[in-house]
Write a structure and sequence with these properties.
Blueprint (H helix, E strand, L loop, with lengths): L7 E5 L4 H12 L3 E6 L2 H11 L6 E5 L7 H12 L5 E4 L17 H27 L5 E5 L15 H20 L5 E5 L17 H12 L9 E3 L2 E3 L2
Parallel strand pairs: 1-2, 1-4, 2-3, 4-5, 5-6, 6-7
Antiparallel strand pairs: 7-8
Helix pairs in contact: 1-6, 3-4, 4-5
The protein binds NADP nicotinamide-adenine-dinucleotide phosphate.
Amino acid sequence: MALLSGRRILITGVSRGVGFETARLFLEEGAELLGVARDAARLERARQALDPSGERLSVVAAELTREEAPARLARAVEARWGALDVLFNNAAVQIDGATRGVSTLPESVFQQSLAENLVAPYRVTRALLPLLRRGTEPRIVNVSSGAGNLESMQMVDIPSYRLSKWALNGLTLLLAGELAGAVSVNAFDPGWVKTDLGGPNAPGKPEESARGALALVTLPFETTGKFWKDGIQIPF
Ligand SMILES: NC(=O)c1ccc[n+]([C@@H]2O[C@H](COP(=O)([O-])OP(=O)(O)OC[C@H]3O[C@@H](n4cnc5c(N)ncnc54)[C@H](OP(=O)(O)O)[C@@H]3O)[C@@H](O)[C@H]2O)c1
């Protein structure tokens, strides 16, 4: 039997990489999806590839750092389902380049990383929370990274990316505590995989990340406030 039959799921960053492969697997498992990305043409190509009939995947093109974007997503979910079962906060950027050390990073990069990878999922979560509260065993998955665990804070490369994911892990814990019993909130490490963000030297494939994502969203609802990779709990 399909594992996600009838589950109503919003995935950000659906047009490429981890989000695209996760959408493909979730559709195979019977989910209904609303997919988000910023480049409308690429998003439409992804929709065609994933669900040519358009029956189970609808899309909204949105730049998630824009003030009005979270409310637009909430309106789209309200119109389609009136409730939401899973919010998969996946969209992010890694824009540190070759900078080594947070003290020498251009301030604009620092600000942009936090805006895209922390503030945007925070604001999307706030906007969608009333719809999640109407969902069935509702869950939030924050797509984090192994680059954002505590141990990684001793590294000098990709500093604003690391910090944004560490803070996203903190947000996961705060929300999990606050929403215990109402909405499950977990962090997810998709592993280092070949995507535009992961680069060509990554050892894994986003299809493997998708399997980890499926394992996480099918855990018992009571599972909350934890960090997961490949269906296994890992340390924050
Ligand atoms: N790949 C890895 O090795 C790896 C490792 C650890 C964690 N992760 C995490 O996994 C997640 C997915 O990464 P990925 O490798 O699949 O990245 P990717 O291939 O670069 O794809 C990023 C996706 O996010 C969307 N996006 C980015 N910023 C956005 C914004 N401001 N508004 C709307 N959409 C936005 C992009 O949309 P457009 O196509 O419109 O630009 C695209 O669909 C991220 O959270 C990343 O940090 C990845």
